[in-house]
Fold Antitoxin.
Amino acid sequence: MRRVEAGEEITITVAGRPSARLVPATPRAWRHWDEVAALFSGTPDPGWEKDRETISHELQDPWSRA
């Protein structure tokens, strides 16, 4: 389980045939910049400012709603 948590995928076999794969439930949360830099290299969304204006910036306590 520790190896899987570290990112390793393990193939489980039955009589020598692959039967299942044991893989991490979620990807690692932290990434190195060089792994995600390409995500930020595109052109900005031209509608971002307009979309942002439509959002209410009023803070609300989500637990106070009944």
In short: The CA atoms of residues 30 and 36 lie 10 Å apart.
